[in-house]
Design brief:
By secondary structure, the protein is mainly beta. Among the domains are: 11-32 and 458-562, Golgi alpha-mannosidase II (Immunoglobulin-like); 72-209, Galactose-binding domain-like (Jelly Rolls), CATH 2.60.120. It has helices at residues 48-52, 220-225, 272-281, 307-321, 343-348, 390-405, 445-454; strands spanning 19-24, 30-31, 37-39, 72-75, 79-83, 95-99, 107-112, 123-132, 135-145, 151-161, 167-175, 183-190, 198-207, 258-259, 265-266, 333-341, 362-371, 410-415, 419-421, 432-434, 441-443, 460-462, 464-466, 473-479, 485-491, 497-502, 512-519, 536-541, 548-552, 556-562. The strands form seven sheets. The protein has a seven-stranded antiparallel beta sheet with strand order 2-22-24-25-30-27-28, covered by helices on one side. Strands 4-7-12-9-10 form a five-stranded antiparallel beta sheet, with no helix packed on it. A five-stranded antiparallel beta sheet has the order 5-6-13-8-11, with no helix packed on it. Strand 9 (135-145) and strand 10 form a beta hairpin. It starts with 18 loop residues before the first strand and ends with a strand. Its EC number is 3.2.1.55. InterPro entries: Alpha-L-AF_C, ASD1_cat, GH, Glycosyl_Hydrolase_51. Residues 1-19 form the signal peptide.
Length: 565
């Protein structure tokens, strides 16, 4: 633990520049938590269904409280309805009834507009659906511009189905590139063969390439964009509506879904195993959360009434770990802390954990944190000029430096929320924005700060002697067992600062070091599909004894790296 007795200055008013020298110790220090940098995933802002999950069609299983015909439209004069009398399974209790008028001779069917449009990119799409009703002939699947009428993909598959049972169909096609997000997925069939009657469809699905090629996996583009992940979507609006792990595993047709916590249904196609496969594919350490008895709607279960839920948690651990000997929950106590702050709020919390007692078995989990408003109280939105401003991202960096300095105590910290689908957000701002258009992903300035910090992690936090006090500069140093040294410095001030880093007792370091710097004017932000602020890489020449010198612009953060020769 490195105590800070100096006054923390909220230095928005500091305009004078100076030079600072940082001497990094090569002895002593605290072990740093290997799990310190993570991201909390919650199915909010359509970040699960319509976000990271690869399946692109909305309302495909008619789940939630009142799905209706959301996202569906008639093609060729058919009449569509949600039919609760013809169900796929006991879990999927409705289907799409497609009635065809008498005398029809053309191809007819239905379309699905996805989540703000269906993303159409050049590549292969896997498609799945169930059909019921008497039909023998061609079914055509298409991706079509909803306003342009351009056909980006068209694929025929021969289907024979009956009214006695459901028939499962899977096929794939290759699409050409669309220039925008105004696209729909269509399913067409020969209307003359069903005229005066109807067909039923359920669990229609369309997947582009998935991350690591997983069946029912996450989107490849989103998976490649994200660095780390945690998990949280457990509470529910009431005890009965909580996230039930055993209803999110197995075949999709046996997953009932639920009304989610944020005004839209969750299909639970992105379930427990998909989360774990996601972690496995990214070489991440999963952190399992269990329901504590709290519901967002106000219901609380406590005391002996929690017994069946504790048993359910033990069953989940047994399922995951494969041992029937799991009879007790793991020991240890961690405190979960959430911070949604203004920039000044984060800077004032820099030394929050400096003087916390260190008790064996006790740890801190900063489960959620983010800058959500300006110092004047303006809410940050992707759609306005206050979208994740540089000042706010640098204030988060100051707070993160405080966490890292105390990472013997602070075991985990996770930025939240991680992802939002533009136009479908209940809780802005978020780390990454997503749309259905080409080049759909936009990293906020906070995303690039998180990436800088999470990819420059040492095993041991080292003491630093400096010739300045904290404010406007804040810093932390660490080293790895492989001989790398990192120094992170945030400049929460209105003037550029000059920094020299020395590691005088280190041997065998290269004279060439690297520094990554992110900066911008206080109110600058990244907007949807418009990234104006991201790190710039530079090479430095110096030595461990003489040091390496570089500038940190106003409202900037620098990550310095020295490596073995």
């Amino acid at each position: 633990m490195f105590s800070s007795a100096s006054l923390l200055l909220l230095t928005s008013f500091v305009t004078s520049a100076y030079s600072a020298t940082f001497n990094v110790s090569t002895t002593g220090g605290n072990a740093s938590s290997p799990l310190l940098y993570g991201l909390m995933f919650e199915d909010i802002n359509n970040s699960g269904d319509g976000g990271i999950h690869g399946q692109l069609l909305k309302n495909n299983g008619f789940q939630g409280d009142s799905p209706g015909l959301t996202a569906y439209a008639s093609v060729g004069g058919t009449s569509l309805s949600q039919d609760t009398t013809v169900n796929l399974t006991t879990a999927i209790q409705s289907s799409l009834k497609v009635s065809v008028p008498s005398g029809t001779t053309a191809s007819v069917g239905f379309s699905n507009s996805g989540y703000g449009g269906v993303p159409v990119n050049a590549g292969t799409y896997a498609n799945y659906f169930y059909i019921k009703g008497n039909y023998s002939g061609t079914v055509t699947l298409r991706l079509v511009g909803s306003t342009s009428g351009t056909v980006f993909a068209s694929h025929d598959v021969t289907v024979t189905s009956s009214s006695a049972k459901w028939t499962y169909v899977e096929t794939s096609f290759t699409a050409s590139q669309s220039s925008d997000r105004s696209n729909v997925w269509q399913l067409l069939f020969d209307g003359s063969k069903v005229a005066g009657s109807a067909l039923w469809f359920d669990l229609v699905q369309s997947f582009p390439a998935t991350y690591h090629g997983r069946f029912n996996g996450i989107r490849n583009d989103v998976g490649e964009f994200l660095e780390a992940i945690g998990g949280s979507s457990w509470e529910g609006g009431s005890p009965g509506a909580r996230w039930n792990w055993n209803e999110t595993i197995g075949p999709l047709e046996n997953r009932p879904g639920r009304q989610g916590d944020w005004s839209y249904p969750n299909t639970d196609a992105l379930g427990l195993m998909e989360y774990l496969q996601w972690c496995d594919d990214m070489s991440l350490t999963p952190v399992l959360a269990i329901w504590s008895g709290l519901s967002l709607g106000g219901g609380i279960i406590s005391g002996t009434a929690l017994t069946p839920y504790v048993e359910d948690a033990l069953n989940e651990l047994e399922f995951l770990l494969g041992s029937t000997s799991t009879t007790t929950l793991p020991s240890g106590i961690w405190t979960d802390i959430h911070h949604y702050e203004s920039p000044s709020g984060f800077v004032s919390s820099f030394n929050e954990f400096d003087n916390y007692p260190r008790i064996p078995g006790y740890g801190i989990f900063v489960g959620e944190y983010a800058n959500t408003e300006t110092d004047s109280g303006t809410q940050l939105l992707w759609s306005n000029t206050a979208a994740k401003q540089v000042q706010g991202a640098i204030s988060e960096a100051v707070y993160m430096i405080g966490l890292e300095r105390n990472s013997d105590l602070v075991k985990l910290a996770s930025y939240a929320p991680i992802l939002e689908h533009f136009g479908l957000a209940e809780w802005p701002p978020d780390l990454v924005g997503l749309s259905s258009a080409p080049n759909p992903l936009t990293g906020s300035i906070s995303y690039y700060v998180q990436k800088l910090f999470s990819t420059a992690r040492g095993d041991t936090i080292r003491a630093v002697s400096a010739d300045v006090d904290f404010g406007p500069l804040y810093w932390v140093a660490s080293s790895t067992t492989r001989g790398k040294w990192y120094v992170k410095i945030a400049n929460y001030g209105m003037a550029s600062q000059n920094a020299t880093v020395k590691i005088p007792s280190a041997s065998g370091l290269s004279g060439t070091a690297a520094v990554q710097v992110l900066s911008g004017s206080a109110g600058t932000s990244n907007g949807p599909a418009a990234v104006s602020v991201q790190p710039v890489n530079s090479t430095l020449t110096g030595s461990a004894t003489a040091g390496w010198t570089f500038d940190i612009p106003a409202y900037g953060v620098a990550v310095f790296t020295a490596s073995p020769a």
